Amino acid sequence: MLYNRLKKIFPKDFLIKNELFFRRFIYIFYAGNNHQCTICEKTFRKFLTNQRGEELCPSCGSMPRDRRLFSEFKKEKSEAGVVKLLDFSPSRSLYRKLSKDKSIRYYPTDLSTDFISEYQYDITKIPVEDGFFDFIFCFHILEHIDDDKAAIQELFRTLKKGGKAFVQTPFIEGNIYENPAVKTDEDRLKHFGQADHVRIYSVNGLAERLKNEGFEVEIKIFEEDPFFGLRKDETILLLSKN
To answer: Which residue from 75, 159, 195, 224 has the highest number of Cβ atoms inside 10 Å of its Cβ?
Structure first.
């Protein structure tokens, strides 16, 4: 309730700029040991809940998919040496965590400028040499891209051999649903579930497209973990380039 009141009082840009200050204040009301965030590692009594019913960390604001992604990234990342990580449209919680990690050369990018980032890469034309990145985060990006084949080719080209990419989109059962005749925001909302989406992938359909461009694909479906606020049946496609 307090968080919603702050959103009504202050402009969005002001809240983002001063988010950590407000969160330190909000966290006082949530202090406890029932749950923990995988990103900021703070413990608390309960999660905040947004309008979509997602459980947010009261300390850093992470969403369940952010916490799951970070947990899986830690499993795959070697402790030795510095790695280069490309992160498309990063969440603010991950941006704050990863940009301070001295073992990561972090490349947060967002073409729309709606997210905090230092780069504005077009995913279909990433301006780096072949095999540049050790890791790539591509969460909830491909469903926005008209030419997803070109985007997937660029992900493959820029990932080094032995590298890993984490991909997630909204998913449906059955086949990928695309319709080039659907062009307006209103129709896209009706057909694809969001005004700026151009398709809805199925898990196997997206995996097949990724394999066609050279990736090895592991489909990871997870169990619920209430302590960390991780959802049941969440799916991540873990890509390898060998």
So the answer is: 159
pLDDT at 113: 72
Eight-state DSSP code of residue 42? -
**CATH of residue 235:** 3.40.50.150
**Where in the sequence is the domain holding 12, given as residue range(s)?**
2-56
Strands 83-88 and 104-109: parallel
- Residue 57 in this model has a pLDDT that exceeds 90: yes
Separation CA 175–CA 203 (nearest Å):
9
pTM of the predicted model as reported, rounded to 2 decimal places: 0.89
**Do 77 and 185 have their domain in common?**
yes
Angle at 188 between CA 185 and CA 192, to 5 degrees: 150
| Three-class HEC string of the chain | CHHHHHHHHCCHHHHHHCHHHHHHHHHHHHCCCCEECCCCCCEECCCEECCCCCEECCCCCCCHHHHHHHHHHHHHCCCCCCEEEEEECCCHHHHHHHHCCCCEEEEEECCCCCCCCCECCECCECCCCCCCEEEEEEECCHHHCCCHHHHHHHHHHHEEEEEEEEEECCEECCCCEECCCCCCHHHHHHHHCCCCCCEEEEHHHHHHHHHHCCCEEEEEECCCECCCCECCCCEEEEEECC
pLDDT reported for residue 17: 66
A 10 A CB-CB count for 98 gives 20
Burial group, residue 164, by CB count within 10 angstroms (0-12, 13-18, 19+): buried
How far is residue 66's CA from residue 239's CA, in Å, rounded to a whole number?
18
